[in-house]
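== Protein entry: sequence and backbone fold ==
=== Local backbone shapes as whole numbers ===
==== Amino acids and backbone structure tokens ====
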Amino acid sequence: MIQKAKEKIKNNYILLVIATLFFLMYAALSWVRHYNFQSNAYDLGIFNQTLYNYAHLSLGPNTLRHVDTLFGDHFEPILFLFTPLYYLFGTYTLLVVQVMAIILGGFGVYKLIKEHTGHKNYAIIATTIFFSSFGVFQALAFDYHNNVIGAMAIPWILYYLLKKDYFKYYLIFILCLSCKETMALVGIMIGVSIICFNRKQWQHGLITMSVSVFWFLLTTQVLIPFFNNNSQYDHWQSFSNLGTGPLDALYNAIIDPVSFVFRFVDNNDKIQMWWIIILSGGLFAFFYPRYSIMLLPLLSQKFLAQNSAYWGYYFHYNIELMIIVVIAGSVFISENIANKNLKYFILLSLCIINIGYSFKLEFYDNSKLTKIFTCDYYFNSQQRDLVQAIAMIPVSSDVIAQNHLIPHLANRKNINVLPHFTHSEDKNISNNAYQCPSLVNHEYLILNLADESVWPMTSIEQVKKIIVDGYDHNSDVKTIYNSNNVILYQLSLN
């Protein structure tokens, strides 16, 4: 067995070296950010509180997302699978899972492309394109999301379908569906692809498509509304301009296809994003319908949404897109370009383009990937003080905290970000202290005045004026830690 492992390592040495290099980059971008208190309440804080609840055999509530259970927002039961890891990795759990999933997803790309082409070196270059994709780095820079885990299942689903290993195919397919209700849309197109392009396996295509349709309808029309106090599926609001629901949107697209298609390119941000996709491999991927057909729901979610955050390259909205672009583009090049040198030249060019985009494109916070190669990135002068202040807060207590502190404090039943404050009209409160009703229900408030991220408040100056000036001389509030711009208040307001 050990000898077999040694042989595998020897035969895949180059792939493992490349995977290790990207693993180190991913860990630096994801784990170091969290260590230095740069991860966000939305969404890592939300997921961490949910993971804490699951680890303590409770579905909720999620006080950050303001739902009784996160099932009322998105249906993502895959989190149950990661719950035991909470006791090993604490607030880092989901970040560890996400990095490892991306590495495994890259190995899936390698296996699939090698199976298609029969060339190991070609598959290694294709895998490098995926590892270096801007979609991967943008997702890692924005904490954790379950759609990233679902996207990493796609190459394995396609690989086991190709190998006709149906037990593993359906196992990973079910895990993919459990990552997020919208993964069912990709599942529908996988089924359509099988029926259209793998006719000998049409039964599996029909099953895949039927299960996906059923799961999408069940989660969006029954389960999520049930857990959301019998409300509707809230996320359709992002597409309400298309119709009252998916069927109405489809009807409108059929009766007015020109207007529908124009929505994909009706904005300069969308056009810029199309160019990025095309130059990153989409130019070739779009000509391989067997796999590119799976891009239809992803491109629709991206460009038809009313929220402009979906249109660009920021956040986690491109990772499913890019893994399919890499797979479809690589297979198309292999099957349609006969000249070996030209084939490798194009693939290497795509690799360089993707690396270039990953370093050029800014993250949501206006930083760039180059920061992980600077010494300052690994140092936070407030880190020790923040750890000491957080250690003073009992796990059973209710807390209000600044955005970047929330993910480290989400292991509790009740936690909230800084609220919108209004000046108190109560003359009985000393020193004209600013008040907010939600503070009455919390025991601690922690701030890092050296951190400019004070969302949903507007500026650190506002925090100083409203909170610090208001509470420093308030007899109802006790300052129990104040060092190096880190302040911890104990609240006893009645």
